[in-house]
Amino acid sequence: MKVVVIGASGNLGSAALRALTADGAARVVGVARRAPSGPSASDLASVEWRQADVSTANLEPVLEGADAVVHLAWKFQPTHRPEETWETNAVGTRRVLEAVARAGVPALVCASSVAAYSPVHHDDPVDETWETDGASAAAYCREKAYVERALDAFACAHPEVRLVRVRPAFVFQRSAASEQRRIFGGPLARPALLDRRRIPVVPVPAGLRMQAVHAGDVGRALATAATTEVSGAFNLAGAGVIGRDEIGELMGARTVEVPPNFVRHGLDTAWHARLAQVPGSLLDAVMQLPLMSTARAESELGWRPRHSAMDALEAVISGIPEKAGSELPPLRP
Fold first, then answer.
1. Alpha-helix runs per DSSP H in the chain
2. Domain named NAD-dependent epimerase/dehydratase: which ranges (predicted)?
3. Would the pTM count as exceeding 0.85?
């Protein structure tokens, strides 16, 4: 079986590669804008790499003969130039869908996100039928919602393609700690400054509650979706919900509850001054995200997360000050 993973060198992609190559049953081709130039680590040594940018490359030759395509390519930054992220995330996804159809690939697995879901004002877990119009006006949410519509249209136009979309919560792993520090913190967020041993007090927006999932668990779900006859949407989240108490426990610090609007205003001010990497609209999304039920993934994929939400967040928090990463270009320390 040949599986092509697009966006294979990032947080999700690296986890998908590890899961797909674990038993050696599949021939795995990794496609990335920045493919590794040297030999890969032993756990990825069997991966065949192709370098391609989804926004510009002719993808059809790369997909020829594939039994399944796993599309994970995504660009979170630069948030100050949303036209650039749109070109990769929205236009790039449409180009992948067109290439899948032209190449006659029989199965497509695509990463969506909890951020694609519409806002909620309750704590009841939602299933995969909840509306996907985006959690806020943030570019990330708008682009994820657009991808959902593109997948809907693709499913109608190409019923012969088995289509799976996964909607994970916030995805963390230790080897992506340096990348995520750069994405969300930028150059001012030095690893030493984010060492929890140096942070006695942590401000937490009032009412914050969110889910998280370990990249390894998402990778296993992606591998199962690519290699078994399932279709449709699947929520993915580790056990437990993270709120103020859990953040205090992980950080080993006292927490102080602050009004979300205060935090949002501070973020927006810093973002407009080019001092922050994320705008206030992304905090709006975090505060309005639904909690997800993972019952469908458990019953149809046989999926059980091996890590809790706290485990996933711990992996990245502990990895940042230690400059954790991997040899894959986006994940390098």
1. 11-21, 60-63, 82-86, 92-103, 139-157, 177-184, 215-227, 244-251, 260-272, 280-288, 295-300, 309-319
2. 3-236
3. yes
Q: Hey, what domains does the chain have and what are their CATH numbers?
A: 2-331 (3.40.50.720)
Task: List CB contacts of 201: < 8 A, sequence separation 6 or more.
Answer: 253, 254, 255, 256
**Position 195, amino acid:** D
Helix/strand/coil for 333: coil
Four-residue CA torsion sign, 293, 223, 217, 145:
negative
Q: Using DSSP, state whether 104 is helix, strand or coil.
A: coil
User: So what's the pLDDT on residue 40?
Assistant: 65
Q: Which residues pair with 110 in a beta bridge?
A: 71, 165
Report phi then psi at 229, rounded to 5: -85, 65
* Nearest-angstrom CA–CA distance, 88 and 76: 10
- Up-side HSE of residue 128: CA atoms within 13 Å toward CB? 21
Q: Where is average pLDDT lowest: 40-44, 143-147, 158-162, 218-222?
A: 40-44
φ/ψ region of 323 (left if φ > 0, alpha if ψ in -120 to 50, else beta) reads left
CA dist 320 and 36 (Å) reads 22
Provide the pLDDT confidence category of residue 187 given band limits of 50, 70 and 90.
Answer: confident
For 127-139, the pLDDT digits (tens) are: 999 999 999 999 9
Sorted by sequence, the CB contacts under 8 Å of residue 180 that are 6+ apart come out as: 11, 172, 316, 320
pLDDT at 309 over 90: yes
